[in-house]
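#onboarding

Welcome to the new folks! Below is a worked example of what a typical request in this channel looks like: someone posts a single protein sequence, and someone else replies with the predicted structure as tokens. Don't worry about understanding the tokens yet, we'll cover that in week two.

Example request:
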Amino acid sequence: MNIKQIRLDSFGPYENWTFKSGPNGVQLVYGANESGKTSLLEGMRSLLFGGKHKKYGYVSGSLELDKEGTAYHLGRQNKNLDFYSPGEPSIKDEPNQLWWHGLDKKTYNRIFGLTLEDLQGVDILNEVDVRARFFGAEGGEQLGGVVKSIETNANDLLVASASGKRRINVLIDQLQENKARLSALGEHETQYVELQQALKASEDTEAEIQNQIKEWQDYREGVEMVLRAWDTYRRSEEARRRMQQFTSPDTLDRDAFLSIDEGLREARQNMQLWLDKEEALKPENFDPNSPFTTYGQDIEDLIQQGAKWEQLRRECEEGEAYIAKVKEQLDFSRGLQSSWRKDESVPTDVNWFEGERLSKRLRTAKDQLLYWQSQAPSLQKETKISEDSSSVDTGENSPVNTWAQQELQAVMTDIANLESRLGEHGSIRMATMPIWLQRIGGIGAVVGVLMSLAGLIALESVLYSIGGIILLILGLGLFWYGWRLRHVDDSDVARLMRELERLQQRKSYLETQLDAPLPVASDVPNLETAAIEQRYNDEGKQLQANYEKALAEWQAWIPEGAAKSLDEDDFFSMKHEYDQYSEQLRTIEGYEKRLDEHKESLRVIEDQAVTLWYNLGVEAPVSPTELKCIYNQYKNFQQQMIRWEQKESQRKSYRMEYDNWHRKEKELLLEQKALLEKSGLSGANEYRQKLIDEDQFKQWETIYKQSQVQLDLLTPDGENKDLFYRRLREGNKENWTDELAHADQELNARKDAMANLYEKRGQIVEAMRALGSDQEQREAIQQRQELESELESALEDWATQVVIAHCMERAQQSYEEESQPKMLELASQYIKRLTNGAYTFDMWGLQDGLALLNVRGERLPIYHWSSGLADQVYLTLRLALAKVFSYQVDALPIILDDILVRFDEDRQKSALELLAELGEHQQIWLFTCQQQVYYMGQAIAGIDTHILQRA
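Example response:
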């Protein structure tokens, strides 16, 4: 028997799940832990034998079976069995009763449906059911049943218990009660005659109540018959209505369609067979459709860049280390600078022209102030001299005029420098004209947006979209750069114009000072001296204000990150340190630019490698070393491809066989199409549905005829059949049910009255028995004689049953001694194959227990077995038992769940080859969580491999 399809509508983790088996005898199903393999095993057990699972409850699903070329549907919905062969009536018997001689679910689970836990131990050989079914040879099972029946009969007669209720035990208890009764009887004779009269009256009342009970029972039977007939009538009407829903039978060519269907199945099986043979010609671990076929040239191209790849990686690593070292040296040199603080960053843009001008201005203001301070005594002296003389020095050699001329010369120099810089800015601005940069950037951004939209919507091209995005970014960057040039230039020009205006104001002031006449010496000495002092003080205040203003502007100009304590003399040292730092920074930026170019080249190569890794399905990290490994694999693939092409002739032969069966399949499909067109149906499924409808029509027709026969039998004698049918059509079941309940109430009332009457009669009889002790004593003596005689007969029967049971037990042992060694010999052959000839069973030492013999003839008892060897022995015992059962009854499907987990790879492969050989005559389901077992199964003929998926 083979399982062709499994459907689990509701069982544990499975909901509306379907699985179809392959054409080979072994079905190897791979699934990871918690994928539902054990739940599937339990579901298959429950579908075959029924029952309620302790965790998942009742199963809802079906199995499509094939037994000796006949298809069967075995379905279960909770407790309901749906068992039939297409086109045949439903089968009421369970499969184990119909096919497997009453094999129970427990024995099946111990032999055929195994998990790793069920596999353990050899005590199964001593179980009574296994001994009777598997070692009984011809008649052994019946012999075991007879032994059980005899033991049951013997136990029904006598049980070794003080409180036993078997026949002999009861007789012994009754004898003891009889002896006690005889000893307690006394002499009593009173009112015996009255009690006899009362007893006679109770008998009359009993007869009357019995007549009433008989009348109500007859009435109840009549009502009950009408109810039974009513249900049968409704069933016949339902059958007649269903018959009208289906097509009338004998309208389709059933035999022709089934013949074509069988031919298609055979053609497809042979097509798969020749495909499998063609697949077997492939070298081990070789796939002609491997990605190496498509991406071989990419591997060749990339391996040619392997040296460049390694060099770029090395140069990038060395460049990063060098730049880090140079930056460290730059930070160290910053710590040695005196003008710049190490805790702050150096600004990228410093207006050194402004700084130089401010430093000169501060130096001039400082010199003027110092000069003024140094001239204070001279002025006083000159004042005194002027008091004594009649003339005052008002020429150009006056100290005040000398200072004003020097300050005016410095201001005019600054004005000339500012005017030259304004001229340069104006020419640069007129030459650069950044407005056209903004226009080009805007146009480029618009074109980039249009290219991106066209690539995404119209052309569906990724390259077009990427190009548009890049153009958009470049256009926006160019637009921003032009805007920045314009606004930065404008701010610099405005600043220079403000500075020029301030210098011109200063120039006007100095010219005014030079044109103003010096005070003339007065004849009054005191007034002249006071005026000179006042002028000197006013000039000092003005020089002090100029110095403070120049100092404030200098300190405000000092760049961020420079020492705030710097004066005008430190300007050139500060600028020198800044220029050195900027030069080193530009050198580092040049190194970083070249490093970025190297990284970009390395990224291009690594992107090619990543793409190649993805196309080849490689999960290892991207590296030149891994590229060499892939290249070696590619060379190996090319060699295997050469060997594969050398087998081209044999493969073409297999392909020709496949094409022949494929043509036959097409011919059958054409015949099927012609048959479908003839019948006016659109497809094979619809044709099959019509055949099923015909079968259902026949079933309902059978139900209708059976119902009519039952109605004829249920029609009361003497009543017209047509009148009885009208009564059923027009009747009311509720009224009949009420009448039946009323009859039951009346019967219960009469029975209660009868029980009360019996109780009262018992009291009368008990009183009469107490009064008539002599008679009771005689009855007790007579009862004792009867009990002793019955006890003697029962003891004789019990002894006979015990002797027969002993003889039958010896006969059963004789059967087992002949059959068990045959099974063990078969298991010995299996264990020899699994261990590659290392072990066999010790057939001559079975009286000492089950053991193995190695190649040197040494005996290995069970306690010396490793866990893996023990699993292999237990598996061979189950396989041998299943083989013996197939000889006697039927080849049941074997279901194995993860029983190879403790096998090494060699013995796993040997086990799969053994299972494939057994699968030629008996279907085997093997569940595993090991990928290597799955891959081994793919390489062995006779094994269909599947991956378990619940969704």
